[in-house]
Amino acid sequence: MNPSASSTQRRYDLDWIRVGAFCLLILYHVGLVYGVYDWHIHSAHTFAWMREAILITNPWRLTLLFLVSGAALRFMTLRRTPRQVARARFERLVPPLLFGAVVLVPIQSWIEAMDKGGWPNGLSGYLAWMGREFSLGGLADGVPVNHLWFIVYIAAYSAVTILLWRRPGLIDRLGDWLQKNLAGPRLLVLPILYLIAIRIGLFPWFGITNVLHWDWYNHALSLAAFVFGFSIVGRESLWRDMERYRWLALGLAAVALPVMMVQVWHPGGRAFWGIPKAVVYGVDQWATIVAILGFGSRHLRARGGPVLNYLTQATFPLYLAHQTILVAAVWIVRPAALPAWLEALFLVAVTFLGSLAVYEVVRRIPAIRPLWGLKPLDGRPWPLDLKALLRPTQRYHRRRRLLGVGVAAPLLALTVVAAAIAAYPGFDNATQYLSELGGASASAPIIFNGGVFVAGIMAGLGGIGFGLAVYALTGARVAGWVIVVVFVLAGTGMAGSTLYPWPDPRHMVINLALGIQLAPLLLLWGLHRRRDMPRLKVFLAATFVVMAVLTVLTKHLVLPGAVNDANVGWWERLYALVLVGWVGVAAWVLDRKLLAHATESPPPRPASAVLDVPA
Predict the structure, then answer these.
(1) What is the pLDDT of residue 476?
(2) How far apart are CA 86 and CA 76, in angstroms?
(3) How far is CA 578 from the centre of its chain?
């Protein structure tokens, strides 16, 4: 590659584009829930206009991702040999692919089998389905990878591109050819002609299968985009032309999109063997990509920062988790028959927040980071760094581990409840209580009872972490002890209730867990001398107010009848979500504060210190 400053410096615009494209992917998949195309699961609401609406991103989104992925691979080659690049790609892609195929995708596929094929639900149904899928006959038919096909293709395209790169001068010659022949307006014209040609010549015969060995149109499109991105990273004249023609490209895309929608909507759209449709599709496809790359190069090249760094690291885990969370959320919420707009907002929020929650958990557990596409921490050995576990050196490491348990406890509880609902045929979220998931009428009560028992123990351990963290940050010994007692009682109530499943009267020991309603106030009391945590304090106060309002509603002190037999289940779901969810957020914030506190050397204490207690 020709030497260039831009070829050795990180391109933040490509990072922003990659993050944005994956966010659009999540929205796109939520849209498919309401579309008329075949997908894993659908809402009770479907809309014919979604056939045209998905064209807003469908022609160009994945092609752009492959192009950016090829550019990212090029940056990896600047300081590595071909063998090192191949090894890095293997370590980054293969563990998530295997983990996803064995753990994440089966959940989606089982829900789809229940929804479309009438497969038995419940734990026994899931185990039987898994046995069939991973039997010799099932493996002979292939292992479903669902949305992980993208990882398969990235791995394959990386291997092909590395082989091309190993040929001396080949990539340089390709880059020179592209730079020469795509100068000026040809940057728009020639790629559009290529996209039209493969759309006419290959798509009618092969379509898009997402099956690696029989997807030749997709390879002609996506592999070409990948190699193109790999070849043009340091070709500044191409990027200047993209910036130069960005407005023209945007105009072409703005004209092509409605025409393409009309062609899909109107019965005559396939006239003349579909050639006019292929022409408009190719124009929209490449014009949108040039517009995005041009505007990004012009305005985002040097705009890095902590937000981008966080989102860049989170993108791969979000991609892995999002579709499993979305499919499970549709399966659980669909029986509620919510209005379409409310259901869609719920699915978007649950998918984004649930995926971010997964990222926040897995990035803190060194042993599983590579399974989620994250690099090992600080170059530590994987899968396990025994030395770091046995002899930790950082201050507050025990407190932080306990707070990590506090982050994981609500996530486990919510996951267990979702799994227990999926395993309970005909469970009515509107009228039934969560405790019934562990009762005699449940088909697999062990899911709820066992999971809540473990979550209760984790809540108690997390509470100890809360108390010790408050003491470390403020020196408030009494507040720390009271916080520990409240959490331990709450955890005892949760764990103890599962030993006496509903409707055993002793199950009501779970009421001890309600004491956690006071924990936000106790934390405010313990942290009141800290002046550098205003957002956490606002969050704790708001959490207490929300729980108080929900309690008042169910006691019928205001709005009598707002909570009744027809909707008490949804009230309980919301109350439980707030009751346990805030714990994970607060534990995470305190963990971050302890980490900062542990890495800074205590300065001489001035008269107006942030803390009003001794260091």
Answers:
(1) 86
(2) 10
(3) 21
Q: Is 336 exposed, middle or buried (0-12, 13-18, 19+ CB in 10 A)?
A: middle
Report the share of the chain in percent with pLDDT over 90: 48
CA distance 532 to 585: 17
Question: Helices then strands (H, E): number in the chain?
Answer: 26, 0
Considering only CA atoms, which of 580, 550, 548, 576 is closest in space to residue 563? 550
**Residue 112: HSE in the Cβ half-sphere, 13 Å Cα cutoff:** 16
Helix, strand, coil % in the chain, rounded to nearest 5 = 75, 0, 25
* 164: Cα separation from own chain's centroid: 33
**pLDDT at residue 608 is higher than 50:** no
Structure tokens at 139: 């493996």
Q: How far apart are CA 36 and CA 44, in angstroms?
A: 12
Tell me the C-alpha distance between 72 and 277, whole Å.
Answer: 32
Provide the CB-side half-sphere exposure for 378 (13 A, CA): 5
Residue entry with tokens 């470390």:
472
Asked whether the beta carbons of 120 and 443 are under 8 A apart, the reply is no
The answer, yes or no, to whether residue 388 has pLDDT greater than 70, is: no
Distance CA 72, CA 374 (A): 16
pLDDT band at 615 (very low <50, low <70, confident <90, very high): very low
456-494 pLDDT, tens digit per residue, is 899 889 999 999 988 888 888 898 899 999 899 988 988
**Of how many residues is the chain composed?**
615
pLDDT digits (tens, 9 = 90+) for 503-560: 888 888 888 877 788 889 999 998 888 888 888 899 999 999 988 888 877 766 666 7
Name the pLDDT band for 604 (thresholds 50, 70, 90). very low
Side chain identity at residue 510, one-letter code: I
Burial class (CB in 10 A: 0-12, 13-18, 19+), 264: middle
The token duo for 415 is 């996951």
Nearest to 23 by CA among 232, 255, 311: 311
Cis peptide before 503 (omega within 30 of 0): yes
Distance CA 426, CA 414 (A): 19
How far is residue 492's CA from residue 457's CA, in Å, rounded to a whole number?
7
Give the span between the Cα atoms of 434 and 411, in whole angstroms. Answer: 16
Q: How deeply is 202 buried, as exposed, middle or buried, from its count of CB atoms within 10 A (0-12, 13-18, 19+)?
A: middle
What SS3 state is found at 206?
helix
Longest dimension (CA), the chain: 83
Tokens (6 digits) for 55: 């064209």
HSE value, Cβ hemisphere, 13 Å, CA-based, for 607: 0
- Put simply, whether the predicted model's pTM sits higher than 0.85 gets the answer no
Burial of 417 (0-12, 13-18, 19+ CB in 10 A): buried
The Cα 591–Cα 533 span in angstroms is: 13
On whether the CB atoms of residues 57 and 216 are closer than 8 A, the answer is no
* Cα gap 388→379, rounded to integer Å: 12
Pair of tokens at residue 190 = 């020639």
Output the CA angle 484-471-537, nearest 5 degrees: 85
The DSSP-derived string for 448-461 is HHHHHHHHHHHHHH
38-47, 266-275, 387-396, 445-454: segment of lowest average pLDDT: 387-396
Scan for tokens 């930790």, then name that residue.
392
